[in-house]
UniProtKB/TrEMBL annotation:
<dbReference type="GO" id="GO:0012505">
    <property type="term" value="C:endomembrane system"/>
</dbReference>
<feature type="domain" description="SLC26A/SulP transporter">
    <location>
        <begin position="2"/>
        <end position="72"/>
    </location>
</feature>
<protein>
    <submittedName>
        <fullName>Xanthine/uracil/thiamine/ascorbate permease family protein</fullName>
    </submittedName>
</protein>
<dbReference type="InterPro" id="IPR011547">
    <property type="entry name" value="SLC26A/SulP_dom"/>
</dbReference>
<keyword id="KW-0812">Transmembrane</keyword>
<feature type="transmembrane region" description="Helical">
    <location>
        <begin position="26"/>
        <end position="45"/>
    </location>
</feature>
<keyword id="KW-0813">Transport</keyword>
<keyword id="KW-1133">Transmembrane helix</keyword>
<keyword id="KW-0472">Membrane</keyword>
<feature type="transmembrane region" description="Helical">
    <location>
        <begin position="82"/>
        <end position="108"/>
    </location>
</feature>
<dbReference type="InterPro" id="IPR045018">
    <property type="entry name" value="Azg-like"/>
</dbReference>
<dbReference type="Pfam" id="PF00916">
    <property type="entry name" value="Sulfate_transp"/>
</dbReference>
<dbReference type="GO" id="GO:0005886">
    <property type="term" value="C:plasma membrane"/>
</dbReference>
<feature type="transmembrane region" description="Helical">
    <location>
        <begin position="120"/>
        <end position="137"/>
    </location>
</feature>
<dbReference type="GO" id="GO:0005345">
    <property type="term" value="F:purine nucleobase transmembrane transporter activity"/>
</dbReference>
């Protein structure tokens, strides 16, 4: 069936969350709309990518407004969030930003002596994330 651009999926899921969609029915509705859009692909391809810029800007502003809720006074929790935002912007990739932020969270907690606060699942996840960054540097 092919794929959809990541920006399109992000816009759809963020718009659904902003509209108050919290159940699986919201995701199912979005999936049905994506499937119906396959029929109108030629029409959709006529829309320039620049037309989605306002929606992406609003989604970005909405995401940054969530930073107000982060306790920046708590060094071990606030700094990884800021690092996640910086890595996302520098790498131009949400996945890389989240991966970097999670690794940074583990490192900061361990350095601060709060390694017991790190869930075991995050320790397990650290292994493929380190591998991801190791291979990312080589390419």
């Amino acid at each position: 069936m092919g794929g959809i651009p990541a920006a399109t999926a992000l816009i759809e899921s963020s718009a659904a969350a902003e509209a108050g969609g919290k159940t699986g029915l919201t995701a199912l509705s979005a999936a049905v709309m994506f499937l119906l859009m396959l029929l109108f692909t030629p029409v959709a391809l006529m829309i320039p990518k620049e037309a989605t810029a306002p929606a992406l800007i609003l989604i970005g502003l909405n995401m940054f407004s969530g930073l107000r809720k982060v306790d920046l006074a708590n060094f071990t929790d606030g700094l990884p969030v800021l690092m996640m935002v910086m890595i996302t912007l520098i790498a131009n990739s949400f996945g890389t930003g989240i991966a970097g932020g999670l690794l940074f969270y583990i490192v900061i907690k361990a350095i601060a002596g709060k390694w017991r606060e790190i869930p075991i699942g995050l320790w397990v996840l650290a292994v493929p994330l380190v591998y991801y960054f190791a291979t990312l540097v080589r390419h």
